[in-house]
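Re: the pair you flagged

First of the two:
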Amino acid sequence: MNTSHEINCNCENLILTMNLIADHAKDVARELDIESVSQIIHEFFKAERIFVMGAGRSGLVGKSFAMRMMHLGFTVFVVGESTTPAVRDNDLVLAVSGSGETPSIVSLGKIAKEIGSTLIAITSNTDSTLSRMADTTVKIRGRTKNHIDGYLERHMKGEYRTLTPMGTTFEISTMIFFDSVIAEMMVLIDATEDDLRKRHSVFD
């Protein structure tokens, strides 16, 4: 990137943004519906195979979770990969979409339901098309006006949308949530980090 002015960064906004994201993740943890979370963990263990899907950065978050699930010993695929097989009725499809209205994910969710597979939605919008068709939804809240007012009112009100653009807070909070789900499941099956490492790719 070319710029016509000198860059003099004091990293004030960097630190502010990190604090915003950390505070938001703590809020998400406090607001989690534990019953829904327990249900999806139960469904993970029950499923023959797990298919993960999401678009854009949400898809990258989902792919990271799929990798950790594989490390735990689950049979897991990422929708859209050339080696991913067809979904069957005894499979589980995990859909990640902040809005719950991403056209490609909603369309694939409908197909999953027509096949008869279990559909899990991770979204900020529990009134969305994706959430309404899902068997279980876990809400991961994105950015809200209250969060702006509570943290930046004194000196930077309104900049929150710039500091954490588009779906940033949803995506990062979902990543933290997924890693925490992995930690919970490790305890449930008495798995260790060494167990996960044994399934890690030797080609990295």
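Second of the two:
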Amino acid sequence: MGGFSLVHWIVLGVVAILLLGGGRFSNMMGDVAKGIKQFKKGMAEDDDKPEASRIEVKKAADPAFETEAERTREER
């Protein structure tokens, strides 16, 4: 009750092949296989790429002038 036996699954598969056609069913399964291969390939490529290290360059402040007053004195 409620569960499908092996015979039910076989009948369901035969009906699906008859409705969809053998070639169409094969094409769908081929597309699924290609999708799985592309997914695995993409996952493998992600693992191979090392994370690029980022070096941040900080611009040093102008040490000649500590305050605005010193800057105006130097300009005079």
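The two ends are 100 Å apart (CA to CA).

-B.
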